[in-house]
Structures are given as C-alpha cells and as structure tokens.
C-alpha cells in the first residue's frame, strides 16, 4: 500500500511598506489623517493607518467608516509594500525622535519606516503593526467633477458653519448641505434658529447637463476640521461625487494639494429655505458693521449680567437711528436705553422704521455679524404685527440685494 502525503504550502507574506520622509512632512501627514482615526477605537486596528509605498510614492490612509483621509507624501519610497501602523504610537514616537532638538532641526530629521522598524540617523525603534487583511476595505475616492478656488471655498464654508446645529438628537441639522450646480457650489446650514447660505463659483465643471444639481449632507464637525487643515493651502479644490440611481450621492471627495478627503453623505436633507426667505422686504436698513458689533457686544453682556438674559432688542430710536439694547422683559423695556446706531434706509419709509422693533438672540446676532466682512451690514425686516414686533425672520446681507452678494444669513426673532 502506498501512502501519499500532500505538502502544505504557505503563501509568502505580502511585503510591508518601506519609505523615508522628513520628520515635518510625516508629522503633518499624521495630523491630517487624525481627522478619521477614532480617538478611542472599539478594536485596536481601527486606531491604525494604512501606509502604502510604491516605487513612485507613499500614501497614508485613515478610515473610520464615515470619512477617509488619504495623504500622498513627498517621500523616498524604497519598495512596494503595505502596512497598518498604530497612529497614536507613531505620533508619540515622532515626538520622542524630536526631543532635545530645535524645531528647525527636528523638522529636517530623516525618518525611515522599514517594515516594523522606524529609524533615524540616531535611533531605531520597533513599531506596532496590524494584519493588513484585517483593516476595513478603503472606498475608492470620487474623481473631481468640479473645481473651486480654495480661498473662496474656505471663506464661504467658514461663514456657513456658524449656523450648523449642535444638537445630537437632530443629526441632519449637524450637517452642511453641498449642492453642486454646473456654475456654482452652494453651501447651506441651519440649526432651526438661524440659517446661512453661501455660493462659490465653480471654475471647472463636468457634472453633465447644464441644469443638473447634485446635493449631499456632510457632517459640519468634519468639515470644520478639514477647513482648519486647508488654511495654508492656496490652490484649486476638486470636488468629486459618486451617485447611484434613486439614491443620490453616496460619496463626496474633496481633493486639495496632496490630500483626498472622502465623506459618506448623511441621509436626508435640510429644511427648504423658500418659505423663509422673503421675496420682498417691508424695511431694509444699512448699519455700520463695526458699530453694530460694538453695540451688540454691550447688549449681550448686559443681558447676561441680569437674569441670565440671552436676548437684545433692535428698536427705533431718534429719527434716522435704531437702538440695540438688552432685553429684560416688556415691563422694563421703557427703563432700558441701548446704543444708538445711525441707519440708512435701503428700502422702506421713516414711518415704517419708527413702527418696527425686533427681539433676537444676542449670541446668534453677534455670530451672524462676525461672518460678514464689509463696512456695512443690511438687515431686511418684514412687516411687524399689531404689537409693533417683527415675527418673521430677519435677513442679513452684505448689501441691499435680498440674496446678498453670494451669501446671506437668516435669524429667527424671539417671542415672549
């Protein structure tokens, strides 16, 4: 009888990443990938990043199932390989490597990652690695279909983020809605008490039909972190979208410099603005923005100083002026005097101005005023009720136009 023995063969292990980069370059890349590394991962590997080296480049990827960050480094790859490195440990090791050095000297330290070892001309230490096959599959970034100027994008995004919600029980309101048209990108946010919308011209668009629009909800907190990382970048920002029939956008990718950030859009949509935006104004007044901010700060501080107040009253004062004062209640209204502000009537009559008063949240008013940059601010008001108080939203714009100059901010008035 003949016995046949089958030999078991083991597939060779896939090569690990091998690359070199200056300390500053690698540290900056880790700061970027931190956007999608869980601070307290449920399993250790989700606190890792994927390093992929090729003969031409090395790219670091981080992924938390909602956001993917990929950073391609100007490094010196030595071979093709893939590793999953512990993000937190790697940051601490890099900090240790720089210990005792001046900042400029630390920035220049050549750092080499070779398989499971990190080395510099002075030291070598082992790295924690995880099985590459256990890391979640990375989504493929969406190729850019439109491009916007980074300065305009950041400026407008920062304005809109002011109005995003912070209530975790209403997650849709914690998002910014991106709507991509053939000629512009509109960003819109609201927390139910205020609303902001900004347009950015699209310098290059390949979204197809001239009137086609693509919308997606992106978490505001992630966009805020991305915006902070983009401040030193001056160049185009590519916008890519993956769409599926009957579903809409399933992935949005922002590409800038050597970075790609991909978001899985949140399901749903923000409340429609059409019913809140006025088609015409009963009264439009233009104020000096710096003087209005000064008056609003005083009103906010005085409102808070007494009865934990949170509101201020914009009221007519002497002819051609309005008063911005803290609001302590209707019975004390005649006892309070606020800062007097000269106004220019952009629309309406002196009689309409004299008969108008509106109460708003002091904090929200200050934040709205801070999003504008011009010398003046125009406030559009609707007709007051029988009590002389405006009950419909206030619209703030850069100029007399109801839709502003690519940006507007809406504030809901307060009622007793």
Mean pLDDT, rounded to whole units? 89
Which topology of the largest domain does CATH recognise?
DNA Polymerase III, Chain A, domain 2
- Note poorly predicted spans: 1-8
State the distance separating the first and last CA atoms. 99 Å
CATH superfamily of the largest domain: DNA Polymerase III, subunit A, domain 2
CATH architecture annotation of the largest domain: Roll
What is the number of domains? 3
Q: Helicity, in percent?
A: 10-25%
Structural class category: alpha+beta
Keywords: Cytoplasm, DNA replication, DNA-binding, DNA-directed DNA polymerase, Nucleotidyltransferase, Plasmid, Transferase
Family: Belongs to the beta sliding clamp family.
GO molecular function, one term: DNA binding
Protein name: Putative DNA polymerase III subunit beta
What does this molecule look like?
The chain has 416 residues and is an alpha+beta fold. The chain has 3 domains: 18-134, DNA Polymerase III, Chain A, domain 2 (Roll), CATH 3.10.150.10; 144-263, Roll (DNA Polymerase III, Chain A, domain 2), CATH 3.10.150; 283-411, DNA Polymerase III, subunit A, domain 2 (DNA Polymerase III, Chain A, domain 2), CATH 3.10.150.10. Helices cover 20% and strands 36% of the residues. The chain contains 8 helices and 28 strands. The protein has helices spanning 23-33, 87-98, 103-108, 150-161, 220-229, 289-305, 350-354, 362-370, and strands at residues 18-22, 48-53, 58-63, 67-73, 76-79, 81-86, 110-114, 117-119, 124-126, 129-130, 144-149, 175-180, 184-190, 194-201, 204-205, 214-219, 236-244, 248-256, 259-263, 283-288, 311-316, 321-326, 339-342, 344-347, 357-361, 376-381, 394-397, 407-411. The protein has a 10-stranded antiparallel sheet. The chain has a 9-stranded antiparallel sheet with strand order 16-12-13-14-28-27-26-20-24. The chain has a 5-stranded antiparallel sheet with strand order 5-1-7-8-9. α4 (150-161) packs antiparallel against α5 and α6 packs antiparallel against α8 (362-370). The longest helix has 17 residues, at 289-305. The termini are far apart. The model is unreliable at 1-8 (pLDDT under 50).
